[in-house]
Structures are given as structure tokens and as C-alpha cells.
Specification:
Helix content is 37%, strand content 24%. It contains twelve helices and 20 strands.
């Protein structure tokens, strides 16, 4: 058994601070760690754990192999990447670039989740003028990784597609430039795909750009959705990160991005990520169901996670059937008020008349539903007990 696994077992028993510090040090300095990666995205495998986008690392290769078998049973392909001690900081920095907020160590064994800032200093560029900030897109990278991973086993949900479209719409990119600009005109070299078709490469950051231009032949200029749309309007196909998740973008895709950007809620940091709560608290579901039943106007209710400004909230969406919008609003306000009396958690309540409510209802199974049965139906029988 590895020292790291021993420390995790010890910490999980008594939660001692000094043991936690030893775990952090061991993750940073042990000779070898193993991580799960996705051949589909050519990046780290990601999933939400406790509401945080999380990378999966392992103290022993066998643990990682078992994890990959588990993921394969769900129809997704994963592989194993080795990370030696001298590459550790680079791996953590790549986790940040990829949009991860935490790592889960030894999933499937005695495990522990560590938030990424505990392992590496996260740079803050917020105080720099926008034109001096490096082009980096953790949020977009995360959304793309989740989307293309799920595309493999056909488990993409509308919220994952929506997140990808909106993040791409809001992003800044890097594009290669061949030669010096001529006035406002630049020449972007085409990239030839395996099928012979030429496409326009865009990149989320300098790491992805270097995969295309390892010899440093080109300069890279910042670009945004406006430039992307100009290429697609001219009939070109843009490929975002062609040596990574390889997102092909056409004129129709750009139109979808514009529509999606009008549907997703925004906060001070940009856009909030919507995600599925895999195992909601049974008590939470029961109490909310009781409130919906007590109100009498709710026909269906849905739960979703939303992460804004680094914090997790719960979205509760109420579908009041054929009730008018004003009555649905009253039901939302009533149940929200009752929920505040019962729960300490933060909630955001919507009806299906709201865009985010409609999106959530379209992409989630209800946790509460009133089913009406026509007792006059000749096929309907009540079985005597």
C-alpha cells in the first residue's frame, strides 16, 4: 500500500489537520501518480464531484486501471497517464487550464477530494487590463471536455450542449497569423484535415496553439466570436483545438451559439454552469416534494445544480401545468418562502415560464410529479386488497 493511501485512511478516521498537510505534501512530491485521461478529448477525464469539476488521480496504477474499467462499463473510453514528481506542477497547472477546481485521489478506494488551490497557486489576472491578460479559457475547456466525453456514449444532455455553445460564444481565442498584418487584414493559415478539407484553426490558449505550431513559425493574435463568425459566414469551417477536443464550428453552429447565449443566466464573472446533481439528498427531495404537494398548483418539479462565482446552489424548477404565468409565479414565491423556513441551503426557484426553468425541465427527470388518471376509462381498475 502506498504512503499516500495510508495517509488518506488515517485522515478519514480522525480528520486531523497535520495528517491532511502530509497528504498535500505527498501529492505534491511523491515519485509517481497516475491520472485518468480521455482519448476522445485528448485531455484529462473530468466529472462533477460534490458540485466541483474534478480530475481523478491515483496513488497506484491498479487503482487507476479499475477506475478506467468502471468508466468503460458506462460506455466511455479512458486511459492512464503517468505523472512523475518533476511534472507534478505542470499537471496541476494543466488541471487549472482545463477548468478543474479539485482532484479526487484514489476513487474506488479510501479516497479524498482536494481543492486545486491547496496544491498550486492559482494566478489571478482580474486586475490586469483585458488586453494584457493571457488568453485562457478554463470554463470553455471544461464544458467542451464534458460534452465530448458524453458524446461518446450518447449521454449528452441539453445543459451540456448549452454550456458548450455559450462558453464558446463568450470566449477569447488565439488564431495563427501568417506574415505581417496588412492594415486590418491578416492571413490565417488553413489546416488540412485527414479527409482533405481545409479548415480554420482557433485555439483556447497557448498550450493548444503550441500543439499546432511547435516550431514557432506563426504569430498568434487574439480573436473572439465576431472573428469566428466572419469565417463561418464566408463558408469556412472553424476548428477549435484541432489537436485536442476538435470542435468543428459552422455557420449553423454560430447561430446556435447566439440563440443559446440568450437563454443562460449570467453573473458578475460571466456565465453560470448548470450541472446534474447525481445523488440529491433524499431528505431534500422528500421535503421539497411535500412543499409542492402542499401548494397544490405544482404538476412537476425538477432539481439541477448551478455553480456561480465558485459556489454551488440548487435550482428548483416548478411546472404548474396549464396554470397562467402569474399563478405559476405565485407558486414559486410561496414554495421558495416555505423552503427558506426549512432549509439552510441556498436555492434558486424558477417556473417553466423562465428560460432557465424551461432548459432545466427539458434536460432533467422530475423528482416530483402529479399523475392524473381518468377513472372513467374502462381499462382503469382499482384492485381490491
Amino acid at each position: 500500500m502506498s504512503l499516500l493511501q495510508e495517509l488518506i485512511i488515517e485522515y478519514n478516521k480522525e480528520q486531523k489537520e497535520e495528517v491532511y498537510k502530509k497528504i498535500i505534501h505527498e501529492i505534491q512530491t511523491c515519485e509517481m501518480l497516475y491520472s485518468a485521461f480521455s482519448p476522445v478529448t485528448k485531455g484529462h477525464y473530468v466529472d462533477y464531484v460534490n458540485g466541483m469539476p474534478t480530475a481523478f488521480i491515483f496513488s497506484e496504477k491498479g487503482f487507476c486501471e479499475n477506475f478506467c474499467k468502471h468508466i468503460k462499463a458506462d460506455g466511455m473510453t479512458t486511459g492512464i497517464a503517468e505523472c512523475k514528481k518533476d511534472s507534478r506542477l505542470s499537471m496541476f497547472a494543466d488541471f487549472h487550464r482545463s477548468g478543474f477546481e479539485a482532484v479526487l485521489v484514489d476513487n474506488g478506494q479510501h479516497r479524498i477530494q482536494i481543492e486545486l488551490p491547496e496544491l498550486i497557486n492559482i494566478p489571478n489576472f482580474d486586475n490586469l487590463p483585458e488586453n494584457e491578460r493571457p488568453v485562457i479559457n478554463p470554463q470553455l475547456f471544461l464544458s467542451a471536455s464534458l460534452f465530448f466525453q458524453c458524446l461518446e456514449n450518447k449521454s449528452v444532455t441539453p445543459d451540456k450542449e448549452m454550456n458548450l455553445l455559450v462558453d464558446t460564444y463568450n470566449a477569447r481565442f488565439l488564431i495563427p497569423v501568417d506574415g505581417e498584418p496588412q492594415g486590418n487584414q491578416i492571413t490565417v493559415p488553413a489546416l488540412e484535415r485527414n479527409d482533405g478539407k481545409k479548415v480554420v484553426p482557433f485555439f483556447t490558449d497557448s498550450t493548444e496553439a503550441k500543439k499546432y505550431d511547435a516550431k514557432g513559425r506563426f504569430k498568434f493574435f487574439p480573436a473572439d466570436f465576431k472573428q469566428m463568425k466572419e469565417f463561418t459566414d464566408a463558408g469556412e469551417t472553424v476548428v477549435l483545438n484541432p489537436f485536442g477536443f476538435n470542435f468543428n464550428i459552422t455557420k449553423q453552429t454560430c447561430e446556435g451559439m447566439i440563440s443559446a447565449s440568450k437563454m443562460v443566466p449570467k453573473d458578475n464573472a460571466g456565465r453560470a454552469v448548470i450541472y446534474t446533481i447525481e445523488r440529491p439528498s433524499p431528505m431534500l427531495v422528500r421535503k421539497l416534494s411535500e412543499l409542492c404537494d402542499e401548494d397544490g398548483r405544482v404538476r412537476k418539479a425538477y432539481l439541477k445544480g448551478i455553480r456561480k462565482n465558485g459556489k454551488n446552489n440548487v435550482i428548483v424548477v416548478l411546472d404548474c401545468g396549464d396554470k397562467p404565468a402569474e399563478e405559476a409565479k405565485e407558486a414559486v414565491e410561496h414554495i421558495y418562502g416555505r423552503a427558506k423556513e426549512i432549509f439552510s441551503e441556498e436555492f434558486e426557484f424558477f417556473s417553466t415560464f423562465n428560460n432557465i426553468g424551461k432548459l432545466t425541465a427539458d434536460s432533467t427527470e422530475p423528482f416530483f410529479e402529479i399523475i392524473t388518471v381518468d377513472v372513467s376509462d374502462p381499462d382503469f381498475e382499482v384492485e381490491e386488497v
